[in-house]
Specification:
Layout (H helix, E strand, L loop, with lengths): L4 E7 L3 H11 L3 E2 L3 E3 L4 E7 L4 E7 L5 H8 L4 E9 L2 H10 L11 E2 L5 E5 L8 E6 L3
Parallel strand pairs: 1-5, 6-9
Antiparallel strand pairs: 1-6, 2-4, 3-4, 4-5, 7-8, 8-9
Bound molecules: cobalt (II) ion (CO).
Length: 136
């Protein structure tokens, strides 16, 4: 059902410092910061040959990343994103198996302008999973 690992997301306490590390120390290609107010985050993508790293920084008062950084002040791996071809079918199948979808259970528009859902970390070995619909 799942395809490629689309990205690994890392919550960072200092976005400029994180960009500098990936761009200047590690020599990676790094995108411009993008504000996603409906998700409460600013994202920057580190573009690798086989996947991406999504650097997440809190945006606004109710950012879900603020809580994460309060618990993990030096930052940390926040979620993994897998690609699926049919998000509705994938979500239905998971819900029927008892997996909890976060929020109202309906897809939101993710950082790439594509529909995404998040699965409850307690149902995936303590790991927050994002599913993103891609063209098949
Ligand atoms: Co993501």
């Amino acid at each position: 059902m799942i395809g490629k690992l689309n990205h690994v997301a890392i919550a960072v306490p200092d976005l400029d410092a994180a960009i500098a590390k990936y761009r200047d120390l590690l020599g990676a290609k790094v995108s411009e910061p993008q504000n996603l107010p409906e998700h409460g985050v600013t994202v920057v993508f580190v573009l690798l040959d086989n996947t991406k790293i999504e650097l997440l920084y809190p945006l606004g008062e109710a950012s879900p990343i603020a809580g994460y950084l309060a618990k993990n002040p030096s930052g940390g791996v926040h979620h993994l994103c897998f690609e699926v071809v049919d998000l509705a079918e994938a979500t239905d199948r998971l819900v029927r198996s008892g997996v909890r979808v976060l929020g109202d259970g309906k897809p939101k528009t993710g950082a790439h302008g594509l529909p995404v859902v998040f699965l409850h970390p307690k149902d995936f070995d303590g790991t927050l999973i994002e599913l993103e619909e891609v063209a098949g």
